[in-house]
Amino acid sequence: MLQMPEMTAQQNQAMRPRNRANTERAIFLAARSLLAEHGFQGFGINAVARRAGCDKQLIYRYYGGLDGLIEAIGEELGSWVNDKIPQDTGGMFILTYGDLMEKLSMYFMEALRDDPLVCKIVAWEVSQDTPQVRRLSESRMKALSKWLEKMRGSLTLPKGVDTATTNALLFASIQHLVISASVSGQFAGVPLKTEKDWDKVAAAVRRLVRAIYG
């Protein structure tokens, strides 16, 4: 009896029916994780293909190459706020703008701590000026602004307070603390390692919001 020659791994893969949606998602997740781990320095077609376990030609076919992948990641980051931060108030009765900003600050800090790629992008925003970083940053900031407006609804803005600048400072401080935690585990002598440390940060942020907005 004649024995058929054993197929190579590439031939075997080629004969299996492909699920385009699953392959696209695998490529996307591989690209996202590589970007989070290594930044743009380790972000290449071959590296993404190896991480996704697919032929690199599929990246060109489905995304048009690296630029298309960056665009797809940027679009996802555009919905990051809505995906990561619940639009309900967690049982908190929102009566004033101060109530809202207290809750949103807590949501934002928790979501940022849970997403290493967004932390990387925040760090890149202040250290790199490339088209790729600008594209990702713009998508994220547009989403954050839209989200704040949507969550505010019909609440009256406090008089005598520049809310846009104040909120920018508030969210920037939260971002910086989260980045510092990932790099050194502290900032200005304040430890940022344990949940107890972050409980103290949360309490301080709440006090700041109440001091400003009442």
Automatic annotation (TrEMBL):
Gene3D superfamilies listed in its UniProt record: Tetracycline Repressor, domain 2
Keyword Cell inner membrane: no
Residues annotated as domain HTH tetR-type: 21-81
Domain of life: Bacteria
Transmembrane spans: none
Classification via Pfam families: TetR_N
Keywords attached to this entry: DNA-binding, Transcription, Transcription regulation
InterPro entries, sorted: Homeodomain-like_sf, HTH-type_TetR-like_transc_reg, HTH_TetR, Tet_transcr_reg_TetR-rel_C_sf
Transcription regulation keyword on record: yes
Protein known as: TetR/AcrR family transcriptional regulator
Organism: Aliirhizobium smilacinae
